[in-house]
Specification:
There is one protein chain. The protein has no helices and 11 strands. With 119 residues, the chain is an all-beta fold. The strands form 2 sheets. Strands 2, 4, 5, 6, 9, 10 and 11 form a 7-stranded mixed beta sheet that branches. A 4-stranded antiparallel beta sheet has the order 1-3-8-7, with no helix packed on it. A hairpin with a 4-residue loop joins strand 7 and strand 8. The chain is globular, with a radius of gyration of 14 Å. The chain starts with a strand and ends with a strand. 30% of the residues are buried.
Length: 119
């Protein structure tokens, strides 16, 4: 059974950093793409970053380019989101999600981890 488990969220002051982890179990080597999304209170879930199994350049939302970095440790079946220069607008629940193919919607979602940035 496929599971994605996020961790690493918390409370941080503006300008600080956090590293989120997404640990995958159950055929993680079959994932075509793993992405991070976030959802702030009262807002829709937005794309943050993605990384493909095949390699290539990761993809980022404009709002996080230059501040966030997505990377993977294949030996640990874990994808990370390093978040630097955090600001209040980054406050949200962060989710990781996985797709099995380049087509269609995401097949699996984690439960989310809360990130709160204080001013």
């Amino acid at each position: 059974q496929v599971q994605l488990v996020e961790s690493g969220g918390g409370l941080v002051q503006a300008g600080g950093s956090l590293r989120l982890s997404c640990a995958a179990s159950g055929r993680p080597s079959s994932f075509y793409l793993i992405s991070w999304f976030r959802q702030a209170p009262g807002k829709e879930r937005d794309f943050v970053a993605s990384i493909a199994r095949s390699g290539g350049s990761p993809d980022y939302a404009n709002s996080v380019k230059g501040r966030f970095t997505i990377f993977r440790d294949s030996a640990k079946n874990t994808v990370y989101l390093q978040m630097n220069s955090l600001n209040v607008e980054d406050t949200a629940v962060y989710y990781c999600a996985a797709k099995m193919s380049p087509f269609g919607s995401y097949n699996y979602w984690g439960q989310g981890t809360q990130v709160t940035v204080s001013s």
